Amino acid sequence: MIRTYMMKKLNRVMILFAAAVLLVACNSNKATEATESDTTAAADWVEVTLNVDGMTCDGCENAIKAGVENLEGIASVESSFEEGWTTVKYDANQTSVEEIEGKITETGYTVVGEKEGT
After folding, report:
1. Global confidence as pTM
2. Which of 52, 88, 95, 110 is least enclosed by beta carbons within 10 angstroms?
3. Structural domain tally of the chain?
């Protein structure tokens, strides 16, 4: 009889523990989803096309892309050595045109201003 009583008590404790774990797990997922959507919503996406001198091949394009992608807040980078431009989509809350230009210069190329009409 005592054994049956103890088993019932243990079962109740286990059920309460399982319910608590599920409750915490469900709430933590909602908090994570809210944080991720808040971050995405807070992004201020800007696209800029810069005229870049010194690119002579695909390797130059790849070097610029690799360098600029290391900055925070970069969504995409495209370059054309043939036409001499680099287009960057970035979050203005995390980086700036000046930082992007600095990274391109650091990589060994010269930014000669923004492309007209962008």
Report:
1. 0.63
2. 110
3. 2
51 and 107 together in one domain = yes
- The verdict on 33 and 65 lying in the same domain is no
Which residues form the domain of 85?
43-114
Query: Sheet of 85-91: strands edge to edge?
Result: 74-80, 85-91, 45-53, 110-114
Co-location of 50 and 104 in the same domain? yes
d(CA 95, CA 1): 70
CA distance 95 to 89: 11
